[in-house]
Design brief:
220 residues, alpha/beta, 8 strands, 50% helix
Length: 220
């Protein structure tokens, strides 16, 4: 027998809520989503580093589990490692949305570019790609690209302007086998960029991986 599954999602921007609701409706109808939006976590992590908010993240995850979540998906790449590290203590899977994307990038080739609009996202995403490369036993060279001015546009509500800047930066890349869009907020660049190599986004694959773990936990 399979009981109803509930997946909690930890976001650092409200723009992610309709994105993941839409993906749920398309790919996983019937799944209950519970959205936890905490913009302050990213603001602090950008200044002080992800570890500075680890305690707050864990408290939020503990509350999500207490409220009935069968799994938690962190949609913020800056905080993904901090969130994922809480799995053992919480007793339910805590996943980072960008891990399946990183694995796909490693499978695509040796040279991977990580593109982001927030500097605090670069180091955790680079480390994740290297971790997936080590796990797969594949050599990888990772370069990072911080798109100047893109975050300012996003923060000002000009999401389209942000995406335009990121897409231009992606199309200017040369000699790479895959591009990783390091934030869920720029996932639509995957459809805008003209680059002929894979331009990978995290929301759909990350949600699918979380759903599998979530539903596995409710199977009896």
């Amino acid at each position: 027998m399979v009981s109803a599954a509930t997946l909690a999602l930890l976001h650092t921007s409200p723009v992610h809520v309709p994105v993941f609701e839409g993906l749920r409706d398309e790919d996983h109808p019937g799944l209950a989503l519970r959205h936890l939006v905490h913009e302050d976590l990213l603001a602090r992590a950008r200044v002080e580093g992800p570890r500075a908010v680890a305690g707050d993240v864990r408290e939020l995850l503990e509350q999500a589990v207490a409220d009935g979540a069968d799994a938690v998906l962190c949609t913020c790449s800056t905080l993904g490692g901090v969130a994922e590290g809480a799995t053992a203590a919480l007793g339910v899977p805590v996943l980072r949305v960008d891990r399946p994307m990183a694995a796909a990038a490693v499978a695509a080739g040796r040279s991977v570019a990580v593109v982001a609009t927030v500097e605090s996202t670069l180091e955790p995403t680079l480390a994740l790609v290297e971790e997936e490369a080590a796990r797969a036993g594949r050599p990888v060279e990772v370069t990072t690209v911080l798109v100047a001015g893109a975050w300012d546009r996003f923060a000002a509500g000009d999401r389209d302007g942000c995406l335009e800047l990121v897409a231009a930066a992606v199309d200017a890349l040369d000699g790479v086998d895959a591009v990783v869009l390091a934030q869920a907020s720029i996932a639509d660049v995957a459809d805008r960029a003209a680059l002929t190599v894979p331009v990978l986004a995290s929301p759909r694959t990350g949600l699918s991986a979380a759903v599998l773990r979530c539903r596995a936990g409710t199977a009896a």
